[in-house]
Amino acid sequence: MKIKDSGEQIDVRYAQRFPDRAVWLRRATPAERVRLFPGPKEGYARCVAICRHLPSHQPQPFFCRSGDVQDLPEEVAGQIYVHALIGYFEGDILECSVTEVRAANT
Prior knowledge:
Helix content is 40%, strand content 20%. By secondary structure, it is of the alpha+beta class.
């Protein structure tokens, strides 16, 4: 069964709505969960970090204790994106907690 990937459509609409934002976070779509993650991780939501300047808004996967990541500030989204990318190159998927990220941003 092929799962339709609506992630790119979501990111195109987001990029149009927020033209000055370079990086954002969101929960992974069902297709991205299958394609980008080895499986679920108990206690974590499967999320992705998106960079506007990459082709097709290439998502970087990460696990987060909360799936409520879409409203985090762009500076925090950028930090998560960089760490998710580093994890990707090291063969791992970033794990983070929104409360810790918010505390680090204050």
